[in-house]
Amino acid sequence: MRHYYSDHATCGLGLTRRQVMHSSLLSGAGLAMASRLAVAQAATSASDAGVSAVPAKTPKAKAVIQIWLAGGPAHTDMFDPKPDSGSDYTGPLSHPIETNVAGFRIGELLPELAKVADKYSLIRSMTHGQNGHETASYLTQTGRMPGRLVYPAAGAVVTAFKGFPDSEATANGSAAKSLIPPYIVLTQPMGRFSEAGFMGIRYKPFATGGDPNAQRFEVEGIISKDLSDNQQRQRRELLGKLNSLSKVVGRNAGLQAAAEAREEAYDLIVGDAGRVFDLGQEPDEMRQRYGRNKFGQSCLAARRLIENGAKFVTINHGGWDTHKDHFATMRRKLPELDRGLGTLIADLSDRGMLDDTIVWCIGEFGRSPKVAVESPWNGGRHHFGACFSSLLAGGGFKGGQVVGESDSRGETVKDRPVYPGDLIGTMYELLGIDPEASLPHPMGEFVRATPGEDEGLESGGRLTELI
Questions:
Q1: pTM confidence score
Q2: Quick one: which H or E segment has residue 312?
Q3: Which residue has the higher pLDDT, 165 or 133?
């Protein structure tokens, strides 16, 4: 858990970190989360200069679950199979399978996704031409090329417009409030770029750490491996009795805010809000459906987080940088992806949540369609930004569709190029984010939320055929 201020710096409430420690007497996880909540409360109490509250259209989507396949997944082994290209290109994965949508075939190791193809669509003509991890990751997540400004990733932008009480209201007009952080990464930060960019630390995601498949999902700053919930409750009661500042809290606005942050922190640790991270609340049958592995249980955790108010959840699922021994890795990773993602889409649909939840599966690029059989690669695939694929489901996106086409070997875009900014802009439209709204900039500069062609970016246009 990141700490946002030093021992002697103020936290935005007129208090130093030492004072917060003294007033709350929190230990370990509680102190870290209380600090985070206190800063968030202070920031939320002021309006975000530059954030437009006027949506472009009535939103169809409320939240996003992003499956980030870090390293770059092989599009021709997954979502854009090319069985007629020959063994130099297909390797041993040369038999795509039919789905429940006529004429819609996907890779042979994805049978669960084949059962729900009517609920998602594929883009087979993603392109940006970048083959370096850092640049490609940044471009795919922000829609922009690296330059003077460090732009925020899509999750941070959604957080700015949808993630705080002052940026979204409930149906009756009152401010919506949730103890669940609006932007969450399961489980490790993505690392190839700054998710919040110039917008600052308020918009960074909360990275959970831990393993959702472990007996106890040890969420960083919330659930401690060293203390049971009962021990946390006992400490809370004892510390409440010892709190020497409790009598003056009501007479000091700063101390009152810190006390409220402390109570919210404890609710995340041992209260109802914290139980969202307890996957033991789910029936064992449901956990088995998702797959008892880190990725499968991360998909289940993502569904629970969206149910409880999160706006953007990224599952950072790495290990796709397969320069060597590619096919052995695919036989291990693709079944996990298939089971977890296929179940997530079906589960969201069964619960009536898919209509307003976007599921977005993508990596920074694809992998070279021609197999590198020479030493030292031994059947590997390399970075490939000229043409790759993405999966989209829910939140207003149609199902059972294929957008764009690659050539017979999956090496170039043959029809309907789709650039990262096109896809991100379409998601913002479905979320009701005004494309001309300005992002919160520390110096008050106007920075448009949605990438535009006037910025010198290539564009194939919004994905109107999918919405």
A1: 0.83
A2: strand 312-316
A3: 133
